[in-house]
Amino acid sequence: MTIRSKTLTILPILLAAAVAILGFSASQADARPGTTASLSITPAKFGYSNVRISGYASMGLAEAQEVVANKFTAAQWSIFGQDPIRDDYLDGPNLIDVRASSRGLEFNDTRVLKTSKLNEDWGEDEIFATIAIYYERGQKFGSTNRIRGNF
Ligand SMILES: [Ca+2]
Ligand SMILES: [Ca+2]
After folding, report:
1. Among 36, 64, 105, 111, which is least packed, fewest CB within 10 Å?
2. Cα–ligand 1 centroid distance for 114 (angstroms)
3. CA 104 to CA 11: how far, in whole Å?
4. Phi and psi of 11, rounded to 5°?
5. pLDDT at 38 over 70
6. 36 forms bridges with which residues in the sheet?
7. Of the ligands numbered here, which is closest to the C-alpha atom of 83?
8. DSSP letter string, 24-41
9. Is the pTM for the entire model greater than 0.70?
10. DSSP class of 140
11. Residue 23: which residues within 8 A CB-CB, separation 6 or more?
12. Using CA atoms, how far apart are residues 109 and 50, in angstroms rounded to an integer?
């Protein structure tokens, strides 16, 4: 009885807190410019392909330098095959370094994958990657272009 009444009192407070947090995140995301990321796939040694991501998360140089210097910063990227119902998870998440520039947080990395791994479909394959950067005061997410081909 006591537990039940306590739960009923606490629940609305938790909901209000959740709404406040979500509201804050959404407005913060709107206020910040996005993340630009591009993907390229080139031949490597026989049977393998270089899958390269590069791009940047927009922010000022001073903020970017602060983020890079912060020990709580972590970034990772993953490679997917696009599908109508559920995308195929092909590789990752792999850690990726970020560095500060006048454009923001720059990143680039190359994975050497078996080309057969990129053959995610009957017929044409659609490959893309995502990046996530987490730091002490926020996070940045991005998705690359789709690369179509017969791998
Ligand atoms: Ca597909
Ligand atoms: Ca295919």
Report:
1. 36
2. 17
3. 40
4. -55, -50
5. yes
6. 56
7. 1
8. HHHHHHHHS--EEEEEEE
9. yes
10. E
11. none
12. 10
Q: State in Å: Cα 151 to ligand 2 middle.
A: 6
Residue 19 host element (H or E) = helix 2-31
pLDDT the model gives residue 21: 41
Question: Where do we find the tokens 């009885």?
Answer: 1
Q: Could you please report the per-residue DSSP string of 102-121?
A: TTEEEEEEEEEEEGGGG--S
pLDDT digits (tens, 9 = 90+) for 46-78: 999 999 999 999 999 999 999 999 988 999 999
Ligand nearest to the CA of 146: 1
The rounded Å distance from CA 88 to ligand 2 centre is: 12
| Sole residue written with tokens 């709107």 | 30
Under DSSP, is residue 13 helix (H, G, I), strand (E, B) or coil?
A: helix
Closest-lying ligand to the alpha carbon of 126? 1
Q: Output the CA 137–ligand 1 centroid distance in Å.
A: 35
Q: How far is the CA of 5 from the centre of ligand 1 (A)?
A: 51
Assign 87 to helix, strand or coil: coil
Q: What angle do CA 31, 32, 34 make, to 5 degrees?
A: 135
Distance, CA 112 to ligand 2 centroid (Å)? Answer: 18
Distance 82 CA to ligand 1 centre (A): 4
User: Tokens standing for 85?
Assistant: 């119902």
